[in-house]
Amino acid sequence: MKSKILKYLSKYTEITEQLENAINESAYFKSYKKGDILLKEGDFSNECYFILEGCIRSYFVKDGEEKTIEFYTEEEVVTPSNIGKSTPSQYFLECLEDTVVNVGNPALENEMYQKYPQLESLSRVIAEVILTKQQESYTAFKSSTPEERYLQLLKTRPNLLQRASQYQIASYLGIRPESLSRIRKRLINK
Amino acid sequence: MKSKILKYLSKYTEITEQLENAINESAYFKSYKKGDILLKEGDFSNECYFILEGCIRSYFVKDGEEKTIEFYTEEEVVTPSNIGKSTPSQYFLECLEDTVVNVGNPALENEMYQKYPQLESLSRVIAEVILTKQQESYTAFKSSTPEERYLQLLKTRPNLLQRASQYQIASYLGIRPESLSRIRKRLINK
DNA sequence: TTAACTTGTTGACTTAAGTTAAGAAGTCAA
DNA sequence: TTGACTTCTTAACTTAAGTCAACAAGTTAA
């Protein structure tokens, strides 16, 4: 299990023995069942998650509708935006499948950053990489039609379509379930 | 001038004397004229910018159309996503007004991070804050209609509508200029 | 000072997403 | 096993964005 995190981090930096020790030292796991809620709207949050196995969905409720913000799968990091803050969460985190995560928390992390400055450097690099990727997604979303967005999702994360229900995917694409259904039909007839 | 950066950074951390020295030591300014291009598609990039005065727009060209990615104004940071990398830029950076920036570069920054680890810690915090803000914008965009997006822009960045032309704003909102024109008309009649 | 270009508006038409309602198929639990 | 619920699809209709074309006003440059 531990090796999965090290494998992930090694994409960004050389894993020194010291860093490996730091990671192993702080490793702490949790398992959740399908349907479990990790965070509710209004909750305070003190944990972030690195997914080892499974799928987590973030969403909020607007006009009585669930709006999916993001799907997180293996080897991705879920950081509640209110983590360590005294502000309540604006959204929910829900397991779409049985899920195993590595749990982190700000206090531990700050302690680790003190002990192993290389780790904070790594966090900065990863935050910047994720920021860039997200900027690209956002831009692509803006300049695409719903149909193009769906095709893009098919291409880049095909397994999501097996793991999430259609109305969850629809709100992730910024459209209604009926529209997604029609888009799929349209594409089959092409 | 320098104080503007320190004021910005002080929102995130205590400015120690050491940090102040670090910033002043690396301060390096440039001025651009309205219409100047700071970065072209295909270019390599080795600079990032902190805007002291003025406005910068990032955009790319798709199907012969300029698609605005983002507008950056005073006290915001513009970091080309290919900075320090050997990949060409996917987009342009253009000054919408006469603009004064503080210039940074990866080599200098890494050097500074070595000398002043507090600075790297600060960069991590800022990257995480920007990431969270961007996630929120992205989510709001997805779950809004074009009209709602325009109203939101009016509310949060009203001065942008004076600083950028309507077709630039339109593509930023993910719609065509004609549609923005109609939305504005619709809203006046309300 | 004209001619060319840019910017924003408007109109007519097309296209596709939103809305509402109904129903089919599958899942789950009493 | 039956009834309730969830998920997805379909149809009819409404709404608004996209497309194409024309034009007015302002700006720029020869």
TrEMBL record, chains A, B:
<feature type="domain" description="Cyclic nucleotide-binding">
    <location>
        <begin position="11"/>
        <end position="69"/>
    </location>
</feature>
<protein>
    <submittedName>
        <fullName>Crp/Fnr family transcriptional regulator</fullName>
    </submittedName>
</protein>
<dbReference type="InterPro" id="IPR000595">
    <property type="entry name" value="cNMP-bd_dom"/>
</dbReference>
<dbReference type="InterPro" id="IPR014710">
    <property type="entry name" value="RmlC-like_jellyroll"/>
</dbReference>
<dbReference type="InterPro" id="IPR018490">
    <property type="entry name" value="cNMP-bd_dom_sf"/>
</dbReference>
<dbReference type="Pfam" id="PF00027">
    <property type="entry name" value="cNMP_binding"/>
</dbReference>
